[in-house]
Design goal:
- The complex is a heterodimer of chains A (about 350) and B (about 400).
- By secondary structure, chain A is an alpha+beta fold.
- In chain A, about 50% of the residues lie in helices and about 20% in strands.
- Chain A has three domains: about 10-105, Butyryl-Coa Dehydrogenase, subunit A, domain 1 (Orthogonal Bundle), CATH 1.10.540; about 115-205, Beta Barrel (Butyryl-CoA Dehydrogenase, subunit A, domain 2), CATH 2.40.110; about 205-350, Butyryl-CoA Dehydrogenase, subunit A, domain 3, CATH 1.20.140.10.
- Chain B folds into three domains: about 5-90, no CATH class; about 125-230, Butyryl-CoA Dehydrogenase, subunit A, domain 2 (Beta Barrel), CATH 2.40.110.10; about 245-394, Butyryl-CoA Dehydrogenase, subunit A, domain 3 (Up-down Bundle).
- Chain B has 13 helices and eight strands.
- Chain B has a four-stranded mixed β-sheet with strand order 1-4-5-8. A four-stranded antiparallel β-sheet of chain B has the order 2-3-7-6, with no helix packed on it.
- In chain B, a hairpin with a 5-residue loop joins strand 6 (about 195-205) and strand 7 (about 210-220).
- Classes of the chains: A alpha+beta (about 350), B alpha+beta (about 400).
Chain lengths: ~350, ~400
């Protein structure tokens, strides 16, 4: 069977429906993170990216269907790092069999993995015998305090890269914070932390390649999440324009507002296109093709997210500023993308 | 992993590509790839080459003599046409009046007109806009009054693209002033050689003659040239507008001109200035390429949905708006890259010698000027947003 991008598999509709019923209404306050995680595990959503014999669909596009629903319903969870990146990375590795048990725990929700995306501080790895020793820190790891494992990229004394899935016991959480997007982040510190060779997932050029995949997978999945959040903002704004009356007529009757709203929906339409494209190419053999799709998606979604979130508040008027309205929550959720990966200028600088 | 196209579609693309590279005259290709606009003869030559291969009406179903391409094959076909430097097939016949004849026409109309469109024996133009009916098209006033077996047509059409080169014109005419203004409109096919038709050129500010004003003075049109019922013209027009905008090849133009931009940047006097080494310019180019890619793939996504028989989003208005802005932005970037080299457009002293022959740069600024039309024609972008808003907000 050839899988075509833009031709959804039947399973996607079922998956979206299941999650749509499971997750709280987009306008209601977010559910407790732990309870939500248990629900997601129960539904099988955490496994969809895994191979078929592990209960999944072996399909990055299915992962982005889940991410989109999470974004649409404003659900805060470690799904992107744990399920979309680490679990799938483990399944890709040549020694995948050795990590089957961990993947099963990531899929049933009993374990959570996170990704230390920011590499702005040194993280040194030295090797002696079969042991690796880590020294350094990672800042603002999403769900860093809650995770059981954190994926980090370190550097050895000869400047070569190492990809390490560090167990909780190997680092301490120095500072836990809540981000503007509602997601928890933590700084973690390694001091003479020894880990066994089984925690090292790759070295040298292979580590760099895998780490690049992780970044792209994280970014592409976050873009799918953003498509969900933008869908909600566009729907809320359209609904509001239809009911809010000023000067004796609904706002939706004013052309200046109609055209702004159409531009929001058009930006969402393009974002959905590129997000589906990037998801379809995440597992492509050709790294360059994947990179190009993800960069285009980053650019397109970033532009759309800024436009849609800002215009949603503007078109709601005063009520859009109120914390009791859900608009602001989605506005802030959409800030994760530029703050972590950079705004739309970043993919242009190549 | 997933792919954008199936192996069968890739094979189809290869077939189209090799056909074009074998059959497209080299001089025509070179002119098109250096920004030239095709002449009437160019279009006739190329359409007849396609016609011989059975592709003269490449967007048509088999029952009307087309190849019966799927929507995605049609997309691939046009993409190859543009990238190879072949001229675009005249849209007024094949893509606009033909689908209306297929849907609403009589058997006799189908048998007479359709074969003459694929062979380009009939070169068509479109009579829609009038001086008093632009965006508000339904208020058009050109009258067609029944007189025995004929309609007598009186009035004026404007912005008629290629009317001076056309054999036939399809017109929206007013057959009734009663009731809703849309309901008094009919769709009429008129032979341009009929006595009483006068075509006067309108020169656009790039200096070219593409559009005209077309006058009708007691023009006798046989009633068998009415398409559909009297009063059904607005329905025909709306159907045509849908057909016109989905997959109208807009991104093909952008991709071709972006490739040209990169070629110009790397050769001749421009190469010494190394425009692509300017990080701000390079970022602009990257942004434009990404926007073209996103719009192009959105077109493909809509076509996949069409192929599945699903309605997804608002294909027609969105592709029109996205495509028209990209046309303009690509040409603007070309022009800005050239800088002072885009200034000369003709020789001083009234010589008629086209500067194109001296410098390829000479068509860049005029084409930029000419393409300001894209956000205006085929339903201005503001009208497109009105249409989309009606669908989204009621």
């Amino acid at each position: 069977m050839s899988d075509l991008i833009f031709v959804p598999r039947e399973e996607y509709g079922l998956l979206a429906d299941t999650l749509g019923r499971l997750l709280p209404e987009p306008s209601s306050p977010p559910k407790d993170c732990k309870a939500l995680w248990a629900d997601l595990a129960q539904s099988g959503a955490l496994a969809v990216g895994l191979p078929e014999d592990e209960g999944g669909l072996d399909d990055a596009r299915a992962v982005s269907v889940v991410a989109e629903q999470l974004g649409k319903h404003g659900a805060v969870s470690p799904f992107v790092g744990s399920s979309a990146v680490v679990a799938r990375l483990l399944a890709k590795l040549p020694f995948a069999a050795a990590t089957a048990d961990l993947r099963a725990r990531l899929a049933d929700g009993s374990a959570v993995a996170a990704v230390a995306l920011l590499s702005d501080r040194p993280l040194h790895v030295t090797q002696a015998g079969g042991k690796f020793t880590l020294n350094g820190a990672r800042r603002l790891v999403p769900f860093g305090a809650e995770a059981d494992h954190v994926l980090v990229e370190g550097v050895s004394s000869d400047k070569s890269r190492l990809l390490v899935l560090a167990p909780k016991s190997s680092y301490r959480v120095e500072r836990a914070v809540i981000g503007v997007d509602g997601c928890p982040y933590a700084d973690i510190v390694f001091s003479d932390s020894a880990v066994g060779g089984e925690h090292v997932l790759g070295a040298g050029a292979e580590a760099e390649r895998l780490w690049a995949w992780c970044g792209d997978a994280y970014l592409a999945t976050l873009c799918a999440d953003a498509v969900g959040a933008m869908t909600t903002l566009v729907r809320m704004t359209g609904d509001y324009l239809k009911v809010r009356r000023q000067f004796g007529a609904p706002l939706s009757s004013y052309q200046v507002l109609q055209h702004r709203f159409v531009d929001m929906d058009m930006a969402l339409t393009e974002s959905r296109t590129v997000a589906e494209w990037a998801a379809g190419l995440l597992d492509a053999d050709d790294d360059r093709e994947r990179r190009q799709a993800v960069a285009t998606t980053h650019f397109t979604v970033m532009r759309a997210a800024t436009k849609i979130s800002q215009d949603s508040v503007q078109l709601h008027g005063g009520i859009g500023m109120a914390q009791e309205t859900a608009v602001g929550r989605y506005f802030k959720r959409l800030l994760a993308l530029p703050l972590i990966f950079g705004d739309e200028d970043i993919p242009l600088a190549v | 992993m997933a792919t954008l196209f199936s192996p069968e579609e890739d094979a189809f693309r290869a077939e189209v590509r090799s056909f074009i590279s074998e059959k497209l005259p080299a001089d025509l290709r070179d002119r098109m790839l250096s920004g030239g606009r095709p002449t009437r003869d160019d279009k006739v030559v190329w359409t007849r080459i396609l016609h011989q291969r059975g592709w003269g009406g490449y967007s048509w179903p088999k029952e009307f003599g087309g190849p019966g391409f799927t929507p995605v094959q049609r997309y691939i076909f046009e993409d190859e046409i543009w990238q190879a430097g072949a001229p675009e097939v005249v849209p007024f016949g094949m893509k606009m009046v033909a689908p209306v004849i297929m849907k609403f026409g009589t058997v006799a109309q189908k048998e007479y007109f359709l074969p003459r469109i694929t062979s380009l024996e009939h070169y068509w133009c479109q009579g829609y806009s009038e001086p008093g009916a632009g965006s508000d098209l339904a208020s058009l006033k050109t009258r067609a009054v029944r007189d025995g077996d004929h309609y007598i047509v009186n009035g004026q059409k404007i912005w008629t693209t290629e009317a001076h080169e056309a054999d036939w014109i399809f017109c929206l005419v007013r057959t009734s002033t009663q009731g809703r203004k849309q309901d008094g409109i009919s769709f009429l096919l008129i032979d341009m050689r009929t006595p009483g038709i006068t075509v006067r050129p309108i020169i656009t500010f790039d200096g070219s003659h593409e559009i005209n004003e077309t006058w009708f003075e007691n023009v006798r049109v046989p009633v068998e040239n009415l398409v559909g019922e009297e009063g059904q013209g607005w329905t025909c027009a709306k159907y045509l507008l849908e057909k016109e905008r989905l997959n109208f090849g807009g991104m093909g133009f952008c991709k071709r001109e972006l490739a040209r931009l990169k070629r110009l940047a790397a050769e001749g006097a421009l190469a010494e200035r190394r425009p692509l080494d300017n990080p701000l310019f390079k970022a602009r180019l990257n942004a434009l390429e990404m926007r073209v890619r996103a719009a192009d793939l959105t077109n493909l996504r809509f076509l996949r949905a069409e192929q599945r028989g699903e309605a997804v989003g608002l294909p027609a208005p969105y592709l029109k708006v996205l495509g028209s802005h990209l046309h303009q932005d690509v040409l603007e970037l070309q022009m800005r890259m050239l800088g002072p080299d885009a200034l000369p457009v003709s020789l001083a002293g009234g010589g008629n010698e086209p500067l194109d022959a001296i410098s390829e740069y000479a068509n860049v600024a005029p084409t930029y000027c000419n393409y300001r039309k894209t956000t205006i024609y085929a339903g201005s972008n503001e009208i497109q947003r009105n249409i989309a808003a009606k669908s989204l907000l009621g």
